[in-house]
Design brief:
mainly alpha, elongated, single chain
Amino acid sequence: MKNASRSALISLLSEACELEHGLACSYLYAAFTLKLSVSENDLTWQEFQSLRIWAGQLYFIASQEMMHLSQAWNLLTAIGGTPYYMRPNFPQGHKYYPIGLPLKLEPFGRRALKRFTFYELPSHVSDTAFLEKEFRIKLSAIEKAFTVGKLYTEIRACFNAIPQDELFIGDKSLQVGADICHFNEIVKVTDRESANRAIDTIMEQGEGNSNDQVDCHYGLFVRLDKELDQLEQAARTRSGKFEPARPAIEDPLVDLVAGAVRLGVVNRRVVVDQAVAVRQVHAVQGAVGLEAVARGVDDRVAVGVGGAAVAHRLGDREPGVLV
C-alpha cells in the first residue's frame, strides 16, 4: 500500500472507532422505536412476535459493534496509540465520512434497514449500484462510496505494509482479552498475525465470508428487510397496514438551545441518549477490566429506558408524535 505509515493507520483506526460507536447508537435507536405491545396500533400476535425478534437481533448486532470498537482499541494500543472514545453528534451528512450515506438516528423502517445494509455491504456487492438502486442517487453524484468493510480493508493493507518491528511498539500488557471482558471473540493484538485475525473477526461478523453471509450483520439486515416486506404484504391482503415503529422523531438532541423546545421534550430526549449511553458504558467498562462496575449496569435497563423514552407522547398539541 502506498503512503502507509503509522500515523495514517492511527487515523484510519480512529475513524473506525467513530463509525463503530455511531453504528451501535443507530442500531439501538431503531430497536428502541419498535412497538412493545399488541395494543399498539392493532398489531397481530404474529407481528408482535416478529418485532420482539427484530429488536433482539438489533440489540445483538449493536453489542457486536461495541466488540468491534473494543477490538479497534486493541489495534490502536498495539501500535502505540490510545483508545479513541469520541464520535460526532447526530446527524452527520453523507460527506462527513466517505461512506456515501448520512449517519443518523431514525425509527425502524425500510429506509433505516437499507442504510444499515449499505454500511455492512460485502465486497462482492457493488456499493455504487446499491446507492443508485436503493437510494436513487445518481452515479455522477457519488463522489466515493466507502463501506465499513472497505475501511477495514485499508486498515489491513496498512498493517501488512509497515515493517512489523517498527509498527508494534505498544505495551502488550495493555491488551484486553476475553479473560477480562465479556467479548469471547476479542483478539489480543501483539503482531501482524493477530492484527489480521482481529480484522478478520470484525469483517466476518459485519459482511460475512464466502461460506456464510446469512448470520452476519449484512445477512441479518437483508433478512429483516424481507420479513418486513412479507408482513406489509400480509397486512395489505386484509386491508390493513403494518407499522412496526412508533412515529418517533429523528436525531433526538441532548444539548438544546434554551427555550427552543418545552422542558418535557428536553428531558425525554436526554433519556434516549442516556439509554444508549448505558449500553456503551457497559461495553467500555468491561473492555478496560472494570467488571465489578460493569456488572452493575444491566443491559435490560438500557432496553427498558430506551423503549420508555420513545413511548412518551409530547402532549395534546402534538398528538401522535412520540420521542
